[in-house]
Amino acid sequence: NIPKGLVSLVAGKLMNYFGVPTIVFSIRKIVSVGSGRSPEGFNILEQIKKFSSYLTRWGGHAQAVGLSIETQNLKNFKKALIEDFQMQKISFRKSKKRVVVIYSKRCKYL
Fold first, then answer.
1. Is the pTM of this model over 0.85?
2. pLDDT along the chain (110 residues), means of 10
3. Using an 8 Å Cβ cutoff, are 21 and 42 in contact?
């Protein structure tokens, strides 16, 4: 599991490498803490606002967000976020992937 203090650093590094919006979570028993980063031209804060009903806390700006979520809601949040990306048909030149979401010890590239 990624330590809570490193999620923003990891999210930033992955976003720079893949060139796509990236959200990384530090998984905890009750509430997981996450950080998101996005490339210039994509407002990750506006994207996260759409799904604020899943979140216990969130905030940030166009290229960076911090968020907390009850761990039991992670799968539904991820599913809703991915479906929205697919509906928007968002693509990024640097990668064929649409978004990078880390929600456990493994990295999922979507």
1. no
2. 83 88 89 92 92 96 96 92 76 51 44
3. yes
Q: Which helix (H) or strand (E) holds 86?
A: helix 74-88
Q: In whole angstroms, how far apart are CA 10 and each of 1, 88, 90, 107?
A: 12, 26, 22, 11
Cβ contacts of 62 within 8 Å, gap of 6 or more: 38, 43, 44, 45, 46
Residue 88's SS3 state is helix
Whether 90 and 71 have beta carbons less than 8 Å apart is answered as no
For 60, the token pair is 């940030």
How many helices (DSSP H) and strands (DSSP E) are in the chain?
Answer: 3, 6
